[in-house]
Amino acid sequence: MIDLELARRLRDAGLAWQPADGDRFILPDREMDDDVFTISQMVVEVRTAPVGKMIAFNGTTEWALDAVEQADAVWIPREHQLREALGDALLSLARTDEGWRCTIRVGGELVEAEAATAETAYGHALLHRLEHTRGR
């Protein structure tokens, strides 16, 4: 999972988010920066019962927030979403001794982004592409 700082930088560089089921997000600056939320049509939790672990399906939970504005949330895109956002600029993702290297083509130039995880390498490559596009 990419970190909050990279997610903010991607948002600020223009990465658009159309919230969908399964998307992850953080509500920063509310003393919840470490809590990752997932959009879901249904809340599912694991409960311990005398018969063992049970998966409970609920419409809401006691601590639930009523609602937040999308602008207050920071999307944490998953690997496939970052890859899709790179589109045809993406050339390759390769394993390195330290992690992963993502190679993209931006404006005729090859750009490599290296990181410990594939998601973070994709994220940095996408950030470069978005910043290049905005700089035109």
What would you say about this model in short?
The chain has 136 residues and is α+β, with helices and mostly antiparallel strands. The chain contains 3 helices and 8 strands; from the N terminus they run αβββββαβββα.
Written description of the protein model:
By secondary structure, the chain is an alpha+beta fold. The protein has one domain. The protein is built from three helices and eight strands, in the order αβββββαβββα. The relative contact order is 0.19.
Key attributes of the depicted protein:
136 residues, alpha+beta, three-stranded antiparallel β-sheet, globular
Q: What's the order of the H and E elements?
A: HEEEEEHEEEH
Intertermini distance: 30 Å
- Secondary-structure-based class equals alpha+beta
The dominant shape is: globular
Count of helix runs = 3
Q: Which strand order do you get reading across the main beta sheet?
A: 2-1-5
Number of domains: 1
Quaternary state, please?
A: single chain
Number of strands: 8
The helix content is 25-40%
**Rg (C-alpha, Å):** 18 Å
Largest sheet: 3 strands, antiparallel
The average pLDDT score comes to 90
Beta-strand content: 25-35%
Q: Can you tell me the residue ranges where pLDDT is under 50 for at least 5 consecutive residues? A: none
